[in-house]
Design the sequence.
């Protein structure tokens, strides 16, 4: 985040929590996401409930928290008096309005960058990949390195998805060379290897080899991908 530094204890804790959650969702992305968008699950759950719910001290934080509540609201008949939407379309419309207003009013701030990322995720889920790309690029270019890295991860998915594989590979290799607390080198390597399994199996195998013996989900994912490679 542009205004969060290592000197701020609560922000450091927040960054670590997000980083750990991003790692989990990235390593299980094929099951959990259609395109692998991280923001809607990670930023909403971690940022919205672990951080901002306890630290609503500024207008920006309050606006972001309210926008996140809309994004997390259930769809269907109202129950228990909480915020609900009759259809997903109505929910998305309200979410886009909330995050667009926030991004416009607080552009350049941490909250503005998060709003831009949310908008990119919503647009991507709607299939509006060109518009989503613009939002992700904005964060990648103007946000701090942590949120920039998340945006680049999503941009790489778009590039591979629409035939710009060279640009997607370049983006992921840059993330491997410049890891952040939100996107580790291992995460970026797994993402690149996954994309190269069918395109360049020899290079995918080379990327996965150092990860095969790693403990936890990273090693398990590497082994699973390696098994998909032609012998």
Sequence:
């Amino acid at each position: 985040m542009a205004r969060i530094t290592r000197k701020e204890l609560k922000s450091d804790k927040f960054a670590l929590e997000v980083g750990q959650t991003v790692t989990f969702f990235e390593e299980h992305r094929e099951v959990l996401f259609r395109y692998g968008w991280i923001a809607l699950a990670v930023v909403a759950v971690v940022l919205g409930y672990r951080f901002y719910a306890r630290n609503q001290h500024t207008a920006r934080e309050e606006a972001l928290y309210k926008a996140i509540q809309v994004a997390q609201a259930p769809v269907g008949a109202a129950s228990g008096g909480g915020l609900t939407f009759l259809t997903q379309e109505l929910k998305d419309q309200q979410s886009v309005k909330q995050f667009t207003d926030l991004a416009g009013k607080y552009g350049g701030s941490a909250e503005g960058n998060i709003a831009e990322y949310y908008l990119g995720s919503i647009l991507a889920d709607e299939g509006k990949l060109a518009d989503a790309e613009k939002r992700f690029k904005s964060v990648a270019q103007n946000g701090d390195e942590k949120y920039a890295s998340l945006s680049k991860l999503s941009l790489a998915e778009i590039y591979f998805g629409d035939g710009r594989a060279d640009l997607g590979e370049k983006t992921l290799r840059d993330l491997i060379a410049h890891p952040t607390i939100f996107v580790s080198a291992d995460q970026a390597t797994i993402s690149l290897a996954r994309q190269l399994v069918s395109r360049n199996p020899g290079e995918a195998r080379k990327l996965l080899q150092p990860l095969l013996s790693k403990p936890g989900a990273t090693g398990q994912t590497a082994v699973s991908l390696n098994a998909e490679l032609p012998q």
In short: The mean pLDDT is 76. Residues 9-77+84-228 form a domain with the Serine Threonine Protein Phosphatase 5, Tetratricopeptide repeat fold (CATH 1.25.40). Residues 48 and 65 are 6 Å apart (CA to CA). Residues 9-27 form the longest helix (19 residues).
